[in-house]
Amino acid sequence: MTKVAEKNTFPNYPAGILHLKRLGIDTYQEPVVYISKDSEVCRSEGFGAQSRVQISTKTSNIIATLNITHDRILKKGEAGLSEAAWRLLQAREGEPARFAHPEPVESLSHVRAKMYDHTFQPEHLQAIIQDIHAGRYADVHLAAFITVCGGDQLSLEEIDGLTEAMVRVGEKLTWPVSPVVDKHCVGGLPGNRTTLIVVPIITAFGLTMPKTSSRAITSPAGTADTMETLAPIQLSLREMRRVVEKEGGCIVWGGGVHLSPTDDTLIRVERALEIDSEGQLVASVLSKKIAAGSTHVLLDIPVGLTAKVRSPVAAAKLIQVLETVGQRQGLKVRALITDGSQPVGRGIGPVLEAREVLAVLRGESGASEALRSRSLLLAGALLELSGRVELGKGLDIATAILASGQAWKKFQAIAEAQGGMRKEPKLSSQYQDVASLCKGRITCMDNRKISRVAKLAGAPEDKAAGVFLKVKLGDRVEPGQPLYTVYSESPGEMAYALDYVALHEDIITVEQGK
Amino acid sequence: MTKVAEKNTFPNYPAGILHLKRLGIDTYQEPVVYISKDSEVCRSEGFGAQSRVQISTKTSNIIATLNITHDRILKKGEAGLSEAAWRLLQAREGEPARFAHPEPVESLSHVRAKMYDHTFQPEHLQAIIQDIHAGRYADVHLAAFITVCGGDQLSLEEIDGLTEAMVRVGEKLTWPVSPVVDKHCVGGLPGNRTTLIVVPIITAFGLTMPKTSSRAITSPAGTADTMETLAPIQLSLREMRRVVEKEGGCIVWGGGVHLSPTDDTLIRVERALEIDSEGQLVASVLSKKIAAGSTHVLLDIPVGLTAKVRSPVAAAKLIQVLETVGQRQGLKVRALITDGSQPVGRGIGPVLEAREVLAVLRGESGASEALRSRSLLLAGALLELSGRVELGKGLDIATAILASGQAWKKFQAIAEAQGGMRKEPKLSSQYQDVASLCKGRITCMDNRKISRVAKLAGAPEDKAAGVFLKVKLGDRVEPGQPLYTVYSESPGEMAYALDYVALHEDIITVEQGK
Fold first, then answer.
1. Using CA atoms, how far apart are residues B137 and B144, in angstroms rounded to an integer?
2. Does residue A407 lie in a domain region?
3. Residue of A25, A146, A508 with shortest CB distance to B69
4. ipTM of the complex
5. Looking at the structure, do residues B347 and B411 belong to the same domain, yes or no?
6. B184-201 confidence digits (pLDDT tens)
7. Strands, E, within B119-246: which ranges?
8. What is the pTM (predicted TM-score) of this model?
9. Which of B26, B38, B152, B276 is catalytic?
10. How far is it between the farthest Cα atoms of chain A?
């Protein structure tokens, strides 16, 4: 209805072009672009610090958050990219790119509506997860989404919709066999490396178990970190498929295979917010299993005061949601509530845990009975869940497979298929005992604080760093008797860990006169 | 209850020290620290990308978000700081600082509890706002806080508590006189520069009006930007007090005087999230007024389809909350619902608006009647609200003060006290008319799109850029008749604005045959 009058004498101005430079700044997953204050692009587009900017090359485009530089980090005509932006855009050094205002992110309106207690419809959640996958959400948008999903604000239908949306944006594996089984531990318990024992038992029995695991984010070791001390874990989806086809199972790093790829993004911001959202947790766990093509999933839910799930009531509620949403998604889910009052086994940290696992697999006499029995319990339950083993027989069959050496043989075969079993991992030569000051009984072991000591000592970056426990709940100790040994690979980190130990009396509680 | 055994052979290791370097990266208000991947501090503290890091110098300490650098931006032993981190820490180039894990931010537990529908107690809100003020909240934490306050999830008691908390963390002015009056417009209407006319009328009458205004964040001009074309606005609290003591009033930039200092932080993340939270809006407006020492506040609430408040019902609800919370805080609040269907006056952009204001103050024959009558309405209502003028007499008194030239004289006196009246601001010599394509009547003027044209043309950074309207709602126009003129200071920006005009037919709607 309007026209620009004829006397417009300005030529049509080319939209802002700058040349890309990899700045080598790791902003974790949030893509950030750095542009000089004096840049014409900043001025003409009216960009300010923290503007959202659309960056387009000939082959790709992303949205990034703008940081304005006042210094000479950039030459004239250059735009710097953070590592995440560089990766997402698949940029080449010096490549020209166009900078513009992004289209508004429409799916944010659903996040805002949820604040007014509207319900997420499945298509809303799909739009949100697609936008997150495409990098259109800045960290503050992710935080808002996680917050409106936080607490218990998602209904079963919404959790179902979220799970489905998370599966849809990634790859989905299919297998020519059924059942395809999996297990998952709802975190929080140091040393709980049953996966490395359960997978070879189950696959030695003949079932398919394509297991993906995570690296540690806030813990001293993830299953992937521990496995990595024994074999390569960073496989592509194609390589993973080949291993599973050959051996029936695998233990690989989930981050390499992009199943339910938005999960990592959401978890990262959840951790920053320290929000445990039941809905997000369920969608996170189930979406990975569904994307891996699993049909039967066993969940290990450790309950304890310093575990992630703190009471049987909370566990029962969580299990109900997991089972119901699993069923909607065509997944048979069973959950076991396990003891979460103390670490599993004695080693905490990648190498220390791997050595415990090897001892159990080889049936050594000094092997941790706690790790062994827990692994057998889970393997037995999973065999029964699969429908291939009669109820009540699972534990015996699992025990026999482990005792016969078949599981150890299968573990080595899987490790070979993943790229080769590594040499026996060595303990650090730097270690330090921490002893009890009094005579008494062990009444409490704080999972979180024990983890903290292991992390301060250098785990998981230093594979051989960590904690080796010499006592368990109920043990009687004498003054001067070692409670645990701290292993470290550097004096600095050893000092950090021991400083923490000196300041915290309740890492392991010895009650006198008991 | 534990002791470290005697054989500890490691010396106590010095905690991580690095030397500070100003990197010149503007991350807006979020403090960011850049540390090299190979740095011992990263390794020994177990810091990863986006860890929260406590940085302590001899004199100050802050918490910042970590970005890890892989490149040679930093030398060995250096840590880079973003502009916000540099400012907050009051760092000096090369100064040594200690890097450590921060204490957990306890007040985040209240944010999490609110997700489970717990109620914020006043002390919770004080703890949260204190932590925000101290920079302990990362942007994702701010986003979570804003989200749990979003929609209408805050009760009157909670809004009251939030307002009080926001006042407490900043300076609070007191005045030896009463009443101390103020006005505030709940945004969204371009050209609405009544403040520059109301303040001199009210102060010429003899009342005290210590007015602080904001710069544009997403609009083509804030009151502070417009005033700045006529006089200095960036005064300290002490200088502001001196101006008010001398002239009875001022029009200064709120950002310089740190009243309710967390407000800017919250608004920044609210805008990124595009969340309009009633509770946050009320706390934002009232906390600034209370901190300025005001006792009587008049609120201008423009209602219109493209204004911030879109319906009389929404306005009535907002007014009720503003008045109730105001009363609890000992503030007399009155709100006027005004026409928000089109811009006020004709100029949009700092210089264009300032010229409209000057014309009204000087009583020029070509002055905007809309801006004049609206200013008089508000000034009259504020005089009556103060209790110093009989009900029904305010408008006449305000009109007389303006007509007599007293307001213009007072405006010049205030400008002098603030640092000196500037030379008459000039229009840009680069301009372009946008004409109607048809014969008809103006039936709609889109405030948001008109603002967008002015911003694309360069406002508010380019003071003389913007839009000058030549029509108003209800006017009849002929084909080719100019609807508005776009002013710009660069060909590039003119082209951006005109491209936008060409693509959007509904900036000003001309209905044919009406």
1. 10
2. yes
3. A25
4. 0.84
5. yes
6. 998 778 999 999 999 999
7. 181-185, 209-213
8. 0.86
9. B276
10. 97
